[in-house]
Amino acid sequence: MFRQLLPIAALLTSTFLMLTAGGLAGILLPLRAGMEGWSPTTIGWLGTGYALAFTCGCIIVPRLVRRVGHVRVFAVLLTLLSMSMLMHGLIIDPWAWTLFRALAGFSLAGSYMVIESWLNERVTNSTRGMVFSIYMIVSMLGLLVGQYILPFGDPATPALFMIGALIYAGALVPTGLSNAQSPRPLTQVSLDLPGLYRKSPAALIGSLLAGIIAGAWNFLSAIYGREIGLSTFGIATMIASSMIGGAIFQYPIGRFSDFVDRRYVMVVAGIGGVAISLTMIMVQPTTPWVVYTLMFVFGTVLFPIYSLNVAHANDFAEPSEFVKISSGLLIVYGVGSMIGPQIAGRLMDLNGPSGFFVTMAISYAAYGSYAFWRSLRRASQAPSERPDFAIRPHDRPQTPETFQLHPLSEAAQEE
C-alpha cells in the first residue's frame, strides 16, 4: 500500500492542508454569520452562491488545465482560495460574502477536479476504492483539524480569517516542490452528462443527492448545533465527531465496495442515513455527549457516499475520460449543493433545528432507493470483470506513454 501512496504523497499533503483551511472556513463563516444576526435562509444563500460557482468551476477549470497544466492551475486556485478567506475578514456583508463564497466554490471545484483526475491516473480499478478511501480519510482529517482551530480564536475578529488564508497558501508548497511525475496534459476537454448517465446512472444521480446532503451539511450543520444550544467548542466537537466516524469507516466501506457491486453499498449507506436522521428527529438530543455519539454514527454514511459514486463511475471509464467524468460528477454534485442549503434553510426556518434532519432523511431515502432500483435494471458487474485500464508496475514503467487506453486495445492490435 505504501508503494502505491508514495507517488501521490505530496498531493495528499497539499489536500490535507487545503481541507484544513476549508474545515476552518466551514465552521467559522456560518458562526460569524449567525453572530451578525443572519437567518438560516440568508446563510443558505451563501451556500447557493458557493455551489453555483462550484458548478461553473467544473466547466471552466478543465479548459484551463488543458491550456497550462494541472500544477499551474492548482497553484492559481489555491491563491484564489487564500484571497477569498482574507476578503471575508475584511468585509462583513451577506451579499459580499455570497460573492466571496462563490470565488471559493469555483476554486475548490477546480482543486477537487485536478486532485481526483490526478489520483485516477495513478490507480487501477482493483485499487481505486482503497486509494480514494485514503484520499477521503486525508480530506476528513484536514477538515477535523480545521474545526479545532476555531476555539483558539475569536470569530468576531479577523485573526481566524488570516490563519485560514495562510494555511491555503501553505497547501501549495508540497505539490509545488514535489519531484513526482505530473499528470499527462489533456488532449481534449469535453462534458457529456447524457453519456455519463448512460455509462453510470447510479453514480450521476447519486452525486446529485450527495450534493444536496453535503450542501445542507456544509452550511447549516453549525447553525443546527447553535440552535440546539451547543457552545462553540461543542459545535466543533459535533462536526468533528461526524468526521471521525467517516474517517474510521471510509476505508472499510471503500475497500468492501471493491469486492461487491458498489450499488449495494450505496443502498446500505442510504438506509443508514435515513435511520440516523429519523433518530435525530424523534429524539431531538440536546445533551452534548448524546449529540456527539449520534453524529459519529451519522458520519459513517455522510462522507463515504461521494467517493462511492466516483469509484462506481470510473469502473466503466477509460483513462482519457477520467477528467471528463470527474468534471461531470462534480457539476451534478454542485447542482445538488445549490439545492441542499435552500431546502434545509427553509425547513429550519419553519420547523426549527429538526428541519435540518428532515432534509437529510429525504435525501438519503432517495439515494438508497435509486441505487437499489438501478441494481434491478442492470446486472451487477463482478469485481473481476471490472476492466483495469492502467498498467501494473510489474508490467512496465508507468509513464504517460505506457497506459493502456482500453483493455481490448492490445488484443485488437494483435488481430
Automatic annotation (TrEMBL):
Extent of the signal sequence: none
CDD domains in the cross-refs: MFS_YcaD_like
Transmembrane segments: 41-61, 73-92, 98-119, 131-150, 156-180, 201-224, 230-252, 264-283, 289-310, 322-343, 355-373
Pfam families with a match to the protein in the record: MFS_1 (PF07690)
Lineage top rank: taxon: Bacteria
One Gene Ontology cellular component annotation held by this UniProt entry: plasma membrane
Keyword annotations of the record: Membrane, Transmembrane, Transmembrane helix
Region described as Disordered: spans on this chain: 384-415
Segments of skewed composition (Basic and acidic residues): 385-398
Gene Ontology molecular-function annotations: transmembrane transporter activity
Stated name of the protein: Putative MFS family arabinose efflux permease
The species this protein was found in: Phyllobacterium bourgognense
